């Protein structure tokens, strides 16, 4: 690594970390996993004057269920979510399906969910899930602690509502009920590329009718977004039997939701190998497939529950 010269501190408490970040006369960066930061420093696209390494703060290294939420500390690594039973209920299934799309095992063993929220890359899986589920980002700064709704947190590529002197201490995600099915599907050029498009979905069904729908879009705008128009198109809809083949008929509610997401919710940005129209088509297809996966997940969960009762 050949970065520009920087100072390095290793705080032992959140208070010490905030004190270091509070020196407003210096450009500071927080180091947790460092899977994005170190590369940018090596290329000297980021030249911090101070690096605050938070890896020796025990209070940040933990994950717990608190009421109806999962609280993920800032040092919890991606790999902690690879097993679906690491988190209760459908949320655990959703996180385990998403995490395998993050880079490769060495990255997942060091990178963190909170770090993804801090970096705010438009192709981040965690950030789109956070927006879809109305997650909360906990930050602490010189003026104390505050909570920021994920929908208000992301301002654009690498831009967030977190102030430079604030430290992300945790991300809180709502637990999902057993009548919710989840899905996550990603499309990318190669296994190690960022997602060209990905979709996270959570469907709640009561008496065969969709009562709640949450759809998060990855790399479909300049920030992670929630496909609210597509969600509204699903509310009150009867799912009915799924088609036997892999293709959804054009009139199926999941196919319609995909088209709505692509045309009304998404604001795709062209990139190499994926222009805007390509992305819109990919979004439409992936939304339909992900909703189908969520339905299959819910029906499998219910079948297993009925089997346990018998």
UniProtKB/TrEMBL annotation:
InterPro entries named among the record's database cross-references: CO_DH_flav_C, CO_DH_flav_C_dom_sf, Diverse_Substr_Oxidored, FAD-bd_PCMH, FAD-bd_PCMH-like_sf, FAD-bd_PCMH_sub1, FAD-bd_PCMH_sub2, Mopterin_DH_FAD-bd
Source superkingdom: Bacteria
Presence of keyword Transcription: no
Keywords: FAD, Flavoprotein, Oxidoreductase
SUPFAM superfamilies, sorted: CO dehydrogenase flavoprotein C-terminal domain-like (SSF55447), FAD-binding/transporter-associated domain-like (SSF56176)
Residue intervals of the FAD-binding PCMH-type domain: 1-178
PANTHER family: XANTHINE DEHYDROGENASE SUBUNIT C-RELATED (PTHR42659:SF2)
Protein name: FAD binding domain-containing protein
Species classification: Bacteria, Bacillati, Actinomycetota, Actinomycetes, Kitasatosporales
